[in-house]
Amino acid sequence: MKRDAVTCGGCVVSALGAVGAVWLWGTSDRTQRHLGNKFENNGQDLGAVLVELPRVVIVGTVLPGLVWGLGAWLLTRRRRSQAHG
Question: What parts of the sequence cross the membrane (predicted)?
Fold first, then answer.
């Protein structure tokens, strides 16, 4: 694989991970409960958004990128060992 393709793939995976994590977080019952999914927004807690949303975005971005990078590193390492051996 070319280095540019691997880098672009990692960026795409990270972006999709961030969007997917926010979507899953936003559709969960717990989040809906905190955002006031009750009658006339009783029980609305925007603190959950301020605390949880940045964490969700960071983990959704970093974790897929790390997995992608680890996979690319292992494939490159395997190819180098097969070429030399």
Answer: 56-75
Question: CA 6 to CA 52: how far, in whole Å?
Answer: 30
Domain limits, the chain: 3-84
Whole-prediction pTM: 0.75
Angle at 37 between CA 46 and CA 41, to 5 degrees: 65
Q: How far apart are CA 1 and CA 74, in angstroms?
A: 12
Q: Residue 1 is inside which H or E element, if any?
A: none
H-type alpha helices, 1-85: 3-27, 29-34, 47-84
| pLDDT for 39 | 64
